[in-house]
Prior knowledge:
This protein has a two-stranded antiparallel ribbon. It is globular, with a radius of gyration of 30 Å. It has a domain at 86-285: MetI-like fold (Orthogonal Bundle), CATH 1.10.3720.10. It has 15 helices and 2 strands. The longest helix is centred in the N-terminal third of the chain and has 36 residues, at 24-59. α7 (140-150) crosses α9. It is mostly helical and 322 residues long. The termini are far apart. It is a multi-pass membrane protein. One of its GO terms (biological process) is transmembrane transport.
Amino acid sequence: MTLAASQAPPAPPRAAAPPPRPGPARRAWRTVSPYAYLAPFFTLFAAFGLFPLLYTAFVSLYRVELQTPGDMEWRGLGNYTALLGDAYFWVALRNTFTIGVLSTVPQLVMALGLAHLLNYRMRGRTFLRTAVLLPYATSVAAATLVFAQLFGRDFGLVNYGLGLIGIDPVDWQNGTVASQIAVSTVVIWRWTGYNALIYLAGMQSIPDELYEAAAMDGASRWRQFFHVTLPGLRPTILFTVVVSTIGATQLFGEPLLLEGSISGGISHQYQTLGLYLYEQGWGFFHLGRAAAIAWVMFLLIVVLVGLNALIARRRSRKEAGR
């Protein structure tokens, strides 16, 4: 071997061959596959969500009876104007609002306090967190029937307890305010634990450094709750308010089973919009009017959720401007 040959530079490494380009079928599948994975959801939503919504809007413009659903008489907005002139519609709307306030406000306040307690380290914390969810897992029929017995006028446990402190028995099923309190109590009992766990999850996402800094500044646990916990839970609180508002607007099972009457008592004293819809559609067989009530409820929910979002946005803007 000559000296020139021994000092020759090594040959450069051969460049790796580029990976083969996927074929047109594979490229097309990569483009279509996300939509294919989402197709079952959208198919079910279109069949059981969108189509009933649009068909209900269509039926609300006609006079349709349950006995003869094929005979449809055009009414336009007649079903909606008939609702505005029906005194029982306004009673049901007022009852829905009052029961919603009586059940939602105490429920969320109690859930917030319960979540604050469960956030501390204590013995049996896992058991307690599971136990608060048991009312939510209970059947609404079973829970309401039990509370109907508790709120019985003659032999109810609640009136027995009131009698021990010198209060006369209350007619929980016939009095307007009393019956609405009874219905709200069932709702509070069922949903407080559910909302407490949602608040608890939100509390655990708040960094511990904020609490440590507040403690170093001399803030008590009460001040930490108001100045650290509540601001950190604002999105969670907004979510629970929106969900509770939707649930209160659609309230049906609890008032129906409290006395077993679709009219919501003798004088409609606790008939909600859900019960009023059921009474018109399956009590009086007016499917067109029932469809109009359903759309009024839908629009009411949209308005209430929009107001909640608008209030939350304005509040966040004010705090950002400080």
